[in-house]
From TrEMBL:
Keywords: Cell membrane, Membrane, Protein transport, Translocation, Transmembrane, Transmembrane helix, Transport. Gene3D superfamilies: 1.20.5.3310. Its main location: membrane. The Tat system comprises two distinct complexes: a TatABC complex, containing multiple copies of TatA, TatB and TatC subunits, and a separate TatA complex, containing only TatA subunits. Substrates initially bind to the TatABC complex, which probably triggers association of the separate TatA complex to form the active translocon. This is Sec-independent protein translocase protein TatB.
C-alpha cells in the first residue's frame, strides 16, 4: 500500500481526525471513495471505447504496452530473433582490445596464439619498478 508502514498510517489517521474533525471525516471518506470509483469507471469506459474503435484486429491490445520499457521488454528482449544473446556470449572483450592495441602499435599478432597473454596490462600496477622510478611513458594513452 504505497510503502506506508503501520506507524505512518496511524499518524495519517490521527492527522485527518485533527484537521477534518470526527464528524466530517466519514463524509469525506465517502466522497473520496466515490470520486476514485468514478475516475476508475471513466478510465475503463475510455479503454473500452478505444478498443471498440480500433477494430477486431486490435482485440489483444493492452494499454500497458504503450509504456516504452514494457514495449521493449516484450518485443525485443523476450524474443531473441536477432541473436543478441549469441552475439553477447560470443564476444570476448579482452581479446578484441588486444587486437585493437596490436593494430594501433603496428604489431602483427601471432596466428598460433588466440590472444597474446604476454602483453602487459598497462592499467594494472607495474611490478618490478624500483622505488621512485616512473612507469614507461605511453604516448597513445595520453
Amino acid at each position: 500500500m504505497l510503502d506506508i508502514g503501520p506507524l505512518e498510517l496511524v499518524s495519517l489517521v490521527v492527522l485527518a481526525v485533527l484537521i477534518f474533525g470526527p464528524d466530517k471525516l466519514p463524509k469525506l471518506i465517502q466522497d473520496v471513495s466515490s470520486t476514485l470509483r468514478k475516475i476508475r469507471q471513466f478510465s475503463d469506459n475510455a479503454k473500452e471505447d478505444i478498443r471498440s474503435e480500433l477494430g477486431p484486429e486490435f482485440k489483444d491490445f493492452e494499454f500497458e504496452d504503450l509504456n516504452p520499457k514494457a514495449f521493449v521488454r516484450k518485443h525485443v528482449l523476450d524474443k531473441d530473433e536477432l541473436g543478441l544473446k549469441e552475439i553477447r556470449n560470443g564476444f570476448d572483450f579482452k581479446a578484441e582490445m588486444t587486437d585493437v592495441t596490436d593494430a594501433v602499435h603496428g604489431r602483427t599478432p601471432d596466428p598460433a596464439q588466440p590472444a597474446s597473454p604476454g602483453t602487459p596490462d598497462l592499467l594494472k600496477k607495474q611490478e618490478g619498478l624500483r622505488p621512485g622510478e616512473r612507469p614507461p611513458y605511453d604516448a597513445d594513452a595520453t
